[in-house]
Amino acid sequence: MGLSNPEKRDTHVKRPMNAFMVWAQEARRQLADQYPQLHNAELSKTLGRLWSTAQQQPKVQCPFIIIFVIIVLFECDVWHIT
What we know:
Elements: H1 6-11, H2 19-34, H3 40-54, H4 58-79
Helix pairs in contact: 2-3, 2-4
């Protein structure tokens, strides 16, 4: 399902990040700085566990969900979705 055609690649609009991805983008940097010996796979597993435990604390996820909604609204405008 790759975009092998250069014309399609140029016009392809990336899918917006979900709330987890918005949060993980910054959290991964912080975690990697704290634990430079961890491999990327271990970082990903740790981030998943942190996110799932944070679901019990909605205040932690709220800013990232708001950012996700803003991104989705912006992407809908870019895609001309109404």
